[in-house]
Amino acid sequence: MTKKISRRLRELQAKVTDKAYEPLAALQLLKETATAKFPESAEAHIRLGIDPKYTDQQLRTTVALPKGTGQTIRIAVLARGEKVAEATAAGADLAGSEELIKDIQGGMLDFDLLIATPDMMKDIAKLGRLLGPRGLMPSPKGGTVTFELAQAIQEFKAGKLEFRADRTGIVHVMFGKAGFSAEDLLVNLKALQECIDRNRPSGAKGRYWRSLYVSATMGPSIEVDISTLRDLSLADAE
């Protein structure tokens, strides 16, 4: 059954051509097509030349967006002893040890990010089925397993976020809000591109970047000229 496209989306799609846009022009068009009745996010959808079923072709890392995410995130921390107080003092919205694990097991998921100290990982394993499908399981690669709680909390609150390639080799990641200026979105998108290049999996062969599309949450997809974006320096973007 074909999904019916709304009149609003059809009208927005008519504004987008099949060509690959210069990065700044694509982001200006993204803003123009963000007409929903709520503050839309700016999303990037990146198809890479990788096959994540092989361990040496998996991509999971973090990026610090220079202009922030535009979101206020709730952070929970699983730690013991004085580390719980340290997390609370650093701005964690929730912090605890065994009692917090029990709350999460009971269905309490009132947080967007879970950070844990390494000594808690054995206890957290029992939460895998609950947290894994939601992308909330702490991981060293994601920067969410650490004893440096204050630093991690501050970085994630300031605009650091974790992302990964899905099983088809596509990265779906939010890189700001449609209400940001096109210039600020470009700085964030450039930082994301550099991060993906920097963390290229060792097993990735041939052409790494296959396609890059951006869109507002409820807007049409807009193709970005990857070569132009990669040739741009972060200083130029800023």
UniProtKB/TrEMBL annotation:
SUPFAM superfamilies noted in UniProt: Ribosomal protein L1
Domain of life: Bacteria
Keywords: Repressor, Ribonucleoprotein, Ribosomal protein, RNA-binding, rRNA-binding, Translation regulation, tRNA-binding
Pfam family, one: Ribosomal_L1
MF annotations from Gene Ontology: rRNA binding; structural constituent of ribosome; tRNA binding
Annotated CDD domains: Ribosomal_L1
Biological process according to GO: regulation of translation; translation
GO CC terms of this entry: large ribosomal subunit
InterPro entries: Ribosom_uL1_bac-type (IPR005878), Ribosomal_uL1 (IPR002143), Ribosomal_uL1-like (IPR023674), Ribosomal_uL1/biogenesis (IPR028364), Ribosomal_uL1_3-a/b-sand (IPR016095), Ribosomal_uL1_CS (IPR023673)
Record's function text: Protein L1 is also a translational repressor protein, it controls the translation of the L11 operon by binding to its mRNA. Binds directly to 23S rRNA. The L1 stalk is quite mobile in the ribosome, and is involved in E site tRNA release.
Entry's family note: Belongs to the universal ribosomal protein uL1 family.
Subunit structure: Part of the 50S ribosomal subunit.
Name this polypeptide is given: Large ribosomal subunit protein uL1
Source organism: Prochlorothrix hollandica PCC 9006 = CALU 1027
Lineage: Bacteria, Bacillati, Cyanobacteriota, Cyanophyceae, Prochlorotrichales
